[in-house]
Amino acid sequence: MTVEELPTTEARRLLPVLREIADEVGPRAGAEGRVADYIPALSEVDPTAFGLAVAGVDGEVLGVGESRTPFSIQSVSKAFSLALALGADAEALWRRVGREPSGNPFNSLVQLEQEDGIPRNPFINAGALVVTDHLLTTTGDARGAVLELLRAESGNPRVDFDASVARSEAARGDRNAALAHFMASYGNLRNPVADVLEHYFWQCSIAMSCEDLAAAGLFLARHGLRGDGSRLLDRSAAKRINSIMLTCGAYDAAGEFAFRVGLPGKSGVGGGILAVVPGRCTLCVWSPALDRHGNSVAGVEALDRFTTLTGLSVF
Amino acid sequence: MTVEELPTTEARRLLPVLREIADEVGPRAGAEGRVADYIPALSEVDPTAFGLAVAGVDGEVLGVGESRTPFSIQSVSKAFSLALALGADAEALWRRVGREPSGNPFNSLVQLEQEDGIPRNPFINAGALVVTDHLLTTTGDARGAVLELLRAESGNPRVDFDASVARSEAARGDRNAALAHFMASYGNLRNPVADVLEHYFWQCSIAMSCEDLAAAGLFLARHGLRGDGSRLLDRSAAKRINSIMLTCGAYDAAGEFAFRVGLPGKSGVGGGILAVVPGRCTLCVWSPALDRHGNSVAGVEALDRFTTLTGLSVF
Amino acid sequence: MTVEELPTTEARRLLPVLREIADEVGPRAGAEGRVADYIPALSEVDPTAFGLAVAGVDGEVLGVGESRTPFSIQSVSKAFSLALALGADAEALWRRVGREPSGNPFNSLVQLEQEDGIPRNPFINAGALVVTDHLLTTTGDARGAVLELLRAESGNPRVDFDASVARSEAARGDRNAALAHFMASYGNLRNPVADVLEHYFWQCSIAMSCEDLAAAGLFLARHGLRGDGSRLLDRSAAKRINSIMLTCGAYDAAGEFAFRVGLPGKSGVGGGILAVVPGRCTLCVWSPALDRHGNSVAGVEALDRFTTLTGLSVF
Amino acid sequence: MTVEELPTTEARRLLPVLREIADEVGPRAGAEGRVADYIPALSEVDPTAFGLAVAGVDGEVLGVGESRTPFSIQSVSKAFSLALALGADAEALWRRVGREPSGNPFNSLVQLEQEDGIPRNPFINAGALVVTDHLLTTTGDARGAVLELLRAESGNPRVDFDASVARSEAARGDRNAALAHFMASYGNLRNPVADVLEHYFWQCSIAMSCEDLAAAGLFLARHGLRGDGSRLLDRSAAKRINSIMLTCGAYDAAGEFAFRVGLPGKSGVGGGILAVVPGRCTLCVWSPALDRHGNSVAGVEALDRFTTLTGLSVF
């Protein structure tokens, strides 16, 4: 009995669409864009890799292409650390980080200065550092909490940090260190700068596959419920994260992403993108060649095709 | 035979929801926020006014409260001028204005300087001036084209400019004049600055009611089709405008609006907000008391209630 | 009897130095740099022209090279409009414009925005517009007052506006118009923007020679006294202008100018530079080819040689 | 035999002026302004302290008031580290730091971001960090080199670091750390950020008296010659430092300082100011109460009186 013969679930219903996308987009992966090259561990990835997975709110996960190959999730981790951070004293967090789109990267420090060390949103690096700092305070182990969540929700205990990536990031981490010290000068970090940076770099280094990541993100499609039925977030917080993903999830191309994909999504420079169809499913696509904004070229294209084919776009 | 006894249409189905919202939100209109006071014509409006209208894609329009009272549409007009501008040589327009959220107002100026006079998106004032300039070039009468579109789509030939508002805006227009001359210094205006400003101020001065505006915006819910079935925009352009409304439509509170309302929307400092449920309907709410970002307090609350009650939010 | 046989005055004592400089620097004029080309009237000037004049505090003026050829004084006029503006209600002026160096040109609008429409100093364009506005209020005819002062102090009634330059500047004046409207939006202009710009462009268009300009600037070397012995400025105001010339007189190369020349100076994109040796003399050099900051290449070199040869540098 | 009966030297000639200033300004010390309070070691200093010393180019040093009380030299050290840094591979240094005034502190950061990590001048903190980094590369011990120079030129072997100040600065050093990491992200630091910061904080912590500091700075009045007649800097480099002191030496009040004092000067938040009369003498004044720009209120007033009384102002 093949998968298709089983009673139809969301994932199975969508699998043919994924196959069509893989056939269409997969062969072009790597033709455009460039793999991130600021650290060796990322620069050595095959630019033509392509994987795509869907996870239904019932928990079933199916994938096409290299959907089981682990990759560096990088900034996709920010959606998970934010979810965990909102679990304890969310009000305090929102006094320290905004929820509005941020304009271009140039303004990172300028805007921080002008707004007294309060980052515009949790997905720009400065904001993600505040989230990690908050999580470090509430849990004592920010990176550990993120890893634990990803393992539990993906159901894959082998999901793990990639120490070589974490160390390379730290070695190239001056820009993040500048942001962290700058916020510290405004009193907007509670823990030592070095600790916050350490947890942040390790959190970003986590390696996992499209199928793992799609499964792990299902709480965003389930309005806050974890796989075991317990509540990670209340409905409002889940909605909040989805809305921030839609308006701020794709670096300085969030507007373009919103237009093309029309779904909440969070991208990473490892080439992964997690997207959410609230109430129905999550998608995770991976292809390492990036556009100039740091988003996976084939990844965005695949999601664009997905919403076009299924009509699931917001617009 | 009452409206409810007629065969059910989208507008009629939603009318009870509108009534519930009007009962709940209407009485609080004006309790919070302040009416725009930078020009006399706006400052004299009753802060407790409240109107709400829905227009189904079939064209039926129903309203509650002061849904037939004309108000100054102000920046809501930007959605219409953009739609018209995209009708001719859209590619040229997109070379002159971006499509990404802009950060806070201060940064919009920093970015304008840094990005050689190219505004970040068509809804910040600099971007709207470029749109008006483009429309002036392609039509010869930008303000006239906007008025004509609004009259035709609302079916209300009495929709008109408010000369006193337009003149007051011009008299207080130094900030817009600065932006226009600044872009002109980069070669990013084609027409004389004075003409562009004139058309812009008049376009913003148009007065119409919630019902008129909801009807006029239906092409955004109809994927580009006008009321007479002709095509104003192709599907992609309509989707583009909706996505820009979602990410940039509420001044520096676009992220908050996306979270609370979860629909494409465009607000104006006259207190009006136009929102779109693609494929189904448009909503227009009006209440003049504004929050510090320039969005109608009761208007946002009404739309928030609407998506909560109907489940039509994106998230 | 030759000039040298007359009783020695400051100008005569310095004439041999001027001749040496003219021999050395004059032949290289135009070899480096480019003539301002943003308006036709300036772009047509011979890039190899070179003139140099000295005026002693006793009023004697001597020159070498093309020291009697009129050129467009442009921003050199700012020193004179400032002097006149300080003559009436200086305190009010200093509440509207600062006295500190300004950083790079990029920040013109940014800094204005951040400092609520108060320009950093009277020699950046925004500051000069405020000065012109102040002078327009106190005299009713800002450009006329500047022209009258220049004619009287140079003793040359033929010094005049160049209408073609003034009109070209106005036609290319969007950047200045942006600055003016921007300040107006903060309430930092008292007169209509168009009037302020008009007077500013005409003031900058005045044409006069090195000898005229050196003579006209003598009040700065005479601690505020005009040629007829009457007082234009008190000592403190004259000192103030000289100090602003030293720290802000050479656009974004004021630091380099202070190092090389070590004297208060004001340059213009017409290729002229007026320099002051307080208590002794003024110098005016002209050579139209400009460096990338807008300062005359041969002009700066000539003044550099002058202070090196005479030891009159501050440092 | 009193000092006045000795053969007259520069210092002795000026001593009566210093006494007059001390009588006039000294009693008002502390009446205006506030002692720096961001670290305990500085906040505990007596705000009414006042010392003033003059050193002639012949090496004689005389003082009035508390001219022998050591204080924290803070940013005055930047003039000495710059002098040492220019001693080896000055060209390389000038490719990494500019020589122009910087606008206000906010803009220094904007500009750092906009100008690819190149600070505007060596006296803003970012620039001083680059100087320290350069000196660390060329000497292996930047802070040691500065201390050694200050000891040698002051002739006082007890001049030393103040460890408690250095440690307090480091503990409050997030803003400087942010600047350093930011420049490092542009490749504009050669040594580890932590090392550069360490040397910078220790260099700033050096404690010495007005008499020591006036003597130590004499090479700037002697066109580069040290006390033993050897050359620390060539004439051009000495002139360069003096010109940067005049245009950039008093934080965001450099223009005001140039006007009032009219001499090259470098201030520190410990309340000290070193001023230079090229070819003649140096002055050092100390009074800990600061104006809002971080300059000693009584210190600036004393130097203002000095140039007024002696006519030694540039203007």
TrEMBL record, chains A, B, C, D:
<keyword id="KW-0007">Acetylation</keyword>
<comment type="subunit">
    <text>Homotetramer.</text>
</comment>
<feature type="binding site">
    <location>
        <position position="169"/>
    </location>
    <ligand>
        <name>substrate</name>
    </ligand>
</feature>
<dbReference type="InterPro" id="IPR012338">
    <property type="entry name" value="Beta-lactam/transpept-like"/>
</dbReference>
<dbReference type="GO" id="GO:0004359">
    <property type="term" value="F:glutaminase activity"/>
</dbReference>
<feature type="binding site">
    <location>
        <position position="251"/>
    </location>
    <ligand>
        <name>substrate</name>
    </ligand>
</feature>
<dbReference type="GO" id="GO:0006543">
    <property type="term" value="P:L-glutamine catabolic process"/>
</dbReference>
<protein>
    <recommendedName>
        <fullName>Glutaminase</fullName>
        <ecNumber>3.5.1.2</ecNumber>
    </recommendedName>
</protein>
<feature type="binding site">
    <location>
        <position position="269"/>
    </location>
    <ligand>
        <name>substrate</name>
    </ligand>
</feature>
<comment type="similarity">
    <text>Belongs to the glutaminase family.</text>
</comment>
<dbReference type="InterPro" id="IPR015868">
    <property type="entry name" value="Glutaminase"/>
</dbReference>
<keyword id="KW-0378">Hydrolase</keyword>
<dbReference type="Pfam" id="PF04960">
    <property type="entry name" value="Glutaminase"/>
</dbReference>
<feature type="binding site">
    <location>
        <position position="75"/>
    </location>
    <ligand>
        <name>substrate</name>
    </ligand>
</feature>
<feature type="binding site">
    <location>
        <position position="200"/>
    </location>
    <ligand>
        <name>substrate</name>
    </ligand>
</feature>
<feature type="binding site">
    <location>
        <position position="176"/>
    </location>
    <ligand>
        <name>substrate</name>
    </ligand>
</feature>
<dbReference type="GO" id="GO:0006537">
    <property type="term" value="P:glutamate biosynthetic process"/>
</dbReference>
<feature type="binding site">
    <location>
        <position position="125"/>
    </location>
    <ligand>
        <name>substrate</name>
    </ligand>
</feature>
